[in-house]
Amino acid sequence: MFETIVRIFTLLPSVPRALVSGLLISLCAALLGVSLVLKRYSMIGDGLSHVGFGTLAVALSFGLAPLEIAVPVVLAAAFLLLRISENSKIKGDAAIALISSSALAIGVIVVSQTRGINADVYGYMFGSILTLTHEDFVVSAGVSAFVLIFYTLFYNSIFAVTFDRSFAKASGTRADAHNMLIALLTALVIVVGMRMMGAMLISSLIIFPALTSMRIFKSFKSVVISSAVVSAVCFLAGILFSFFLSTPAGASIVVVNLIMLCLFAAVGFAARFFKKKA
After folding, report:
1. Which one of 10, 146, 178, 235 counts the least CB within 10 Å of its CB?
2. Is the pTM of the predicted complex or chain greater than 0.90?
3. Residue 76 belongs to a domain
4. What CATH code is carried by the domain that includes residue 186?
């Protein structure tokens, strides 16, 4: 008990910054994830996170500013993945696996030949939410504000593009531009969120809330709202879980998301079962 109290006071200055940054990134990832999951582009998050880690590892190995290098590279990767998925003979999942595994391999080789797996590289690989700096907080707040404004202003267009791209184009919506913007915003959220969740786990923030909400809710609006709530609740529960059991924060958040998915699946199954019985 005494050790827990000491830890609370030791980490207290960084806790508000970590909580606000984490909530913002979790919320944005959940909102973008609904459209990505419904369009079957959910693995783009995993692919971009691997590209992000490879780029960050190379930047750290050569003493460069990690975010300044990673952001343009991951944005370029998002553009490339979307173009390959839509216009190439290589299918989307194969393109993602090709690019992500190559980037990850390059990053690991460069790290092994220079510094080795130091604290910074380890933090970006598995996440270290309590080490978020003031700069990380400002960047996450800026990215989150942009995502929320975009989602609010273009909600109807996002809905149309997600379900029927041809109809969206026919109705005057710039479907390709919206798809590209969603991919680019996802890339930004992933790069910023890697410090919190780590490259190995950041894609879970995109996939889990949407899949969880779809176990019960069927309309787009209800899934979006539920995903945002589920993401925030799972983040806070995961942080508490991590703190009191001394487990890694990123892994704890993923486990809580998994538990929530199982609960929603059980509730959805029960609702369908009793509906058939009625």
Report:
1. 10
2. no
3. yes
4. 1.10.3470.10
**185-231: per-residue pLDDT in tens?**
888 888 888 877 777 678 888 889 999 999 999 888 899 999 999 99
User: What range does the domain containing 152 cover?
Assistant: 2-269
DSSP the chain: -HHHHHHHHHHGGGHHHHHHHHHHHHHHHHHHHHHHHHTT-THHHHHHHHHHHHHHHHHHHTT--HHHHHHHHHHHHHHHHHHHHHHSSS-HHHHHHHHHHHHHHHHHHHHHHTT-S-HHHHHHHH--GGG--HHHHHHHHHHHHHHHHHHHHTHHHHHHHHH-HHHHHHTT--HHHHHHHHHHHHHHHHHHHHHHH-TTTTTHHHHHHHHHHHTT--SHHHHHHHHHHHHHHHHHHHHHHHHHHT--HHHHHHHHHHHHHHHHHHHHHHHHHHHHH-
Structural domain tally of the chain?
Answer: 1
* Domain-located, residue 106: yes
**Residue 278 in domain:** no
Considering just the CA atoms, what is the radius of gyration of the chain in Å? 19
129-144 confidence digits (pLDDT tens): 766 777 777 888 888 8
